[in-house]
Write a structure and sequence with these properties.
Length: 145
Amino acid sequence: MANTFVTLSSWNKRMMVGEEFALEVKCNKSSQANEKGGYSINFQQSKDQKDGIIFHFNPRAESSQVVLNTLANNKAWGTETNILDDNVGMIHYASSFKLKVKPITETKVHVYVNDKFKTEYECQGKKITDTEYLIFSPYVSIHPL
């Protein structure tokens, strides 16, 4: 099944330094929690993954972690940032949650889940402010907040 996408412009939104970007996220397929790779939400400059992924948000219930990463244009992933959390299944799969990304520079963001600070992430070689598309798994629904 193909991924789904939305343009930030269709929501009249942009990623801007100092401004919070918040989404309500819901996994509509609870059995996905048992899948090894979980699901993902990718912040991209274009619809085509070959152009890279600026910010990859990937909750994985089976390993109790959320993986953050950046995919360079040459298809090489950067260094993973792993947020360990025993409640990944409950928070990211059993109900909707709030994902908030706040750019603090063009390449660095603060990541929050349900308004709790999780980590600071460096988009390795990419600018979060270049995000024009959100590409996400077909069994996930997202809405701007």
